[in-house]
């Protein structure tokens, strides 16, 4: 197993380089880079000043030359200074090699537009994403796996039919729409004002005793967690049920029953470890989605300032240090979690031996 782990760790290096290289190449052809963003802001500001000086009326002529200042262009030397400031005065290959060397040492540089280091921004936004991710994973797996097993054992019963109806509705309703519904109902919309609308904690959080801090934290997290749990709960439950039904129908289960084993022994002694493999296989994607990509809309709806919102704003503003740093962290964490999932395979089913197969 040690050799397998070492091979997987070594394979992460070209994988990360490939992901970053493709993304870096795409960015080179994307219009509206940071230099263009600054130029657009300057020309818009110049246009606003011109309109303000004209008493708020749109100026189409007159004045000195009768021309809008933004149309006169900017000093080429100023543009060259902007390109140097953002690092675009160097060839793309040199910029990419420098970036990867810095990222290998977890040096992500500074944001183009926020005047602070990228790593400080990520650390600042991390508590929101960690809070959402950890609790969603815990609740979704703790509820979905037992419920999926129960549905598989009682397939076709009244319990299975009614719970399937609830699950299908939960899967069909978009999470952001359900979040808006919760706000309208319980966050001071049109009915009750039971839960706060924004933030991870209250403004006076640091003044509260420890037990009230815990209550305040979960008070703020209740609606976002319910919103995210709806879709995660539905997907994992159906996946668990179908996996267990598929295993229960196999010949080895019939053989185990014929030997006189009880249903509980058959289910948890034989079926469980085989059926859980497909659940474990989906863990890396669920982990990354819960921590980062899956919470973007929820962060906006509930005014939570996390990594999803940080990454989206960086893409919109072309803040490339944040874009590439978050991509690097997402990719690295995804590869590490994938390796951990493979190790869990061997723990759940010792018959699996990665040493005897190619990576």
Word description of this protein:
The chain has 359 residues and is mostly helical. It has 2 domains: 33-74; 121-356, Orthogonal Bundle (MetI-like fold). It has 14 helices and no strands. The longest helix is centred in the middle third of the chain and has 39 residues, at 210-248. The chain starts with a helix and ends in an 11-residue tail after the last helix. Mean pLDDT is 77; it is low at 54-72.
Give me some keywords for this one.
359 residues; mainly alpha; MetI-like fold; 2 domains; globular
E-strand count? 0
Oligomer: single chain
Shape: globular
Helix content: over 70%
Task: Report the major sheet.
Answer: none
Total of DSSP H or I helical runs spanning 4+ residues: 14
Short description:
The chain contains 14 helices and no strands. With about 350 residues, the protein is mainly alpha-helical.
Layout of secondary structure:
Layout (H helix, E strand, L loop, with lengths): L1 H28 L4 H20 L22 H10 L6 H13 L13 H36 L4 H15 L2 H12 L23 H39 L2 H8 L4 H19 L1 H9 L4 H6 L5 H11 L2 H29 L11
Helix pairs in contact: 1-14, 5-8, 5-11, 6-8, 7-8, 8-10, 9-10, 10-14, 11-14, 13-14
């Amino acid at each position: 197993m040690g050799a397998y782990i070492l091979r997987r760790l070594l394979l992460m290096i070209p994988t990360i380089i490939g992901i970053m290289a493709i993304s870096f190449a795409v960015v080179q052809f994307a219009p509206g880079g940071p230099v263009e963003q600054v130029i657009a802001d300057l020309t818009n500001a110049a246009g606003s000043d011109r309109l303000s000086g004209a008493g708020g009326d749109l100026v189409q002529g007159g004045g000195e030359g009768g021309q809008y200042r933004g149309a006169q262009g900017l000093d080429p030397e100023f543009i060259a200074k902007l390109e140097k400031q953002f690092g675009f005065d160097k060839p793309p290959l040199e910029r990419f090699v420098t970036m990867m060397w810095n990222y290998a040492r977890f040096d992500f540089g500074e944001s183009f537009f926020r005047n602070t280091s990228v790593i400080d921004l990520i650390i600042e936004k991390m508590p929101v994403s960690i809070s959402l991710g950890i609790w969603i994973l815990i609740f979704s797996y703790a509820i979905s796996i037992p419920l999926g097993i129960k549905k598989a054992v009682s397939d076709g019963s009244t319990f299975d039919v009614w719970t399937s109806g609830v699950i299908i509705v939960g899967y069909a309703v978009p999470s952001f729409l359900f979040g808006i519904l919760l706000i309208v109902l319980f966050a001071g919309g049109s009915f009750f004002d039971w839960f706060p609308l924004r933030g991870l904690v209250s403004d006076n959080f640091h003044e509260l005793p420890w037990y009230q801090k815990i209550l305040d934290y979960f008070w703020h997290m209740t609606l976002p967690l319910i919103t995210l749990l709806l879709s995660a709960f539905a997907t994992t439950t159906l996946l668990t049920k179908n996996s267990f039904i598929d295993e229960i129908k196999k010949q080895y289960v019939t053989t185990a029953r014929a030997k006189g084993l009880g249903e509980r022994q058959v289910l948890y002694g034989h079926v469980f470890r085989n059926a859980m493999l497909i659940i474990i296989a989906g863990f890396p994607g669920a982990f990354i989605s819960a921590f980062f990509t899956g919470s973007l809309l929820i962060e906006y709806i509930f005014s939570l300032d996390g990594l999803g919102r940080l990454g989206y704003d960086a893409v919109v503003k072309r803040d490339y240090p944040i874009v590439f740093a978050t991509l690097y962290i997402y990719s690295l964490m995804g590869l590490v979690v994938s390796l951990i999932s493979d190790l869990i395979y061997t723990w759940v089913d010792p018959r699996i031996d990665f040493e005897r197969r190619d990576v």
